[in-house]
Structure formats: structure tokens, C-alpha cells
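Deadline looming. Please check this record:
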Amino acid sequence: MAGRNVRNTRIASRAVRAAAAAACATLALAACGSTKDSVSSGGGGTGKVGVILPLLTSPFWQSYNDYVPKMAKSEGVDALKTVNSNSDPSQQITDINNQLNQGVKGLVVAPLDSAAIAAGLDQAERKGVPVVAVDVAPEKGKVAMVVRANNVAYGEKACEYLGKQIPSGKVVQIMGDLASVNGRERSEAFRTCVRKNYPKLKVLEIPAKWESDTAASKLDTLLNANPDIKGIYMQAGGVYLAPTLQTLKSKGMLKKAGQAGHITIVSNDGIPQEFDAIRKGEIDATVSQPADAYAKYGMYYIKAAMQGKTFKTGPTDHDSEIVKLPSGILEDQLPAPLVTKDNVDDPKLWGNTVK
């Protein structure tokens, strides 16, 4: 995820509070957690589907955008051309309303703000249009399913990797936007894991809001005051990889793995650029966030919702698990493997299939 305009976030959040309270519900629990679940009502599952992106300035979302038409075709979904909300939560609400006014029968949305998105979900519910959320779980509002990897596991995997590589010293986590559940979960999971399992590490934090410029400037300032940094956790390689490497290089601190003074770096996303950086020894690991599976199962679940299919918690037939969130919403937590030099060339990783 990349950043968004703070003023617009506040505008969208006010819109949420002004909207009528959205129903916080999940689909009725019927059948099993498999994607072969049964039909509970007689919807035909036909009609146009709108697909709304959060932004297109990150290689991760560019890849997801490329996968959408391919996966829509393979899943038999009539998807309209994607709409880019350009990192603006209030624009995303407008985009949802525009799609609803065009008569779409389903929506697949990657929310920019976990709270602000409720205003758009409320409008969709009023029109009887099912919504599937991708990447970010709404705090409230009705969605048929959230398609997302376990973001707590992202922070924990980064912590475990750095903790095993670095006996003691200072490590930095470049955080995402804390208005997003993704940013909050990754941040809290990382710091909690370090505090519990690696008490000799000191965590320094950079709130960067998924913004590359913010990450670069704040990392530069932090390194000036703390030149003895030993590790970095980037919560989004798509927006933080390039500025982080450039900042380290400009200070003469970009040492390859195995060289004296190497700063151990672990990231999130699984984009080809991260894989190249791992091969070069510039970073050490990343957690592969499944852009291909996000598109595939976003299309699968919206078609299922339009047909009236329902799901319940438990293992699926695609190596994931459906869980119920505290809000009552169901989330299909897709697998997101840790990638290091040992498996970076695995042809099954989506980052190795992008040309």
C-alpha cells in the first residue's frame, strides 16, 4: 500500500461519521470454508463488476491491476475497467458511488482507509450490491468477504527474521498508514514480537503513511542521529524499497549481505524489484503478498456473492483459512511466504512470473 493525503483522510472519516450506521455483518454461515460452498439464495451471478484500486504508484498495485482482467476472465466475471482512487479516501467513496450509478451488480474494492470506506459500503448495501474487500479489512460495514493475507504474520515474520540475524542493537520499522488496519497490525505485531522474543533489540519507528518521500526524509534524519542502525523492516517494498536503498547509498551505508557493516533488511510485498535486491544482496528477505491470488479470489468471491453463495470459517481448498474478524466479517487469509536468497528463484512465486 502506498500513502494517502491526510486532509482527505479526515474528510472521508467525517463522511463516515455523518453517514447512517452501516450494518456490520457477515454472510450467513452455511456449508464449509471451501470454495466449493453451497448456494443459499437464487442469485444469477451475472452483471458488471466494478473494480476499484487504491493507487497505481506502487509496483505491487500495478501488478494487481494487470492480474485483474486475466483473473476476471478465468473466473467468468464481467469486470469493468479498473478505477484508480489515487491514494485519496474521499475520492474512493466517490468512485464507489459512480460505479453504483453505472449499475454494477458487484464491487471489488481495495480500501484506502479502514474506517472511511464504511460510507461507500453503506451506499452499496442500500442498493443491494455485494462488495468484496481486497488487502484491507473495513472496520465496519457489510462485505461478502475480505481477501487478504495475515498482516499480523507479516510483522511477526519480519521480527523473527531480524531477531535471528541481529543479536542486539537498533532496528527500524518503516511503518504504513496507521489509519489502515494493515499498518496497525504490521506495526503492533512487529514491536510486540521484538519486545517478547528479542529484548536486546531496540525498535525505532518511522510513520511513513505508505509515502516514499516521507520514508526517505525521515529515514535520512533517523540515520543521522543513529548511524549504528543494524536492521530495517519496510512494511511495503512497493513504496519503500527504492527510497530506502537510495538513502542508504547516499550515506555510504548500503553494504551487501556478507560485507562488514551490512544492514539487514526485510520487506513486505514480493515484487520483482525486491527479488532482484535479494539476489544482489542489498536486502535480505521479503514477505510475498499474493497480488495474483488477491485478484483471483477477489473475482471468485464477488461472483459467489452475486450468486448467493455463503461461507463459514475454516480451511479452504486453496491452502488458506477463512476466519471471522472481531467485526463479524469473514476474511480469507491467503498464504504469504517469506522469501530469502534460499527460495528467491522459486518459479511459483508471483514476483517471478511478472515480465
About this structure: The radius of gyration is 20 Å. Confidence is low (pLDDT under 50) at residues 2-43.
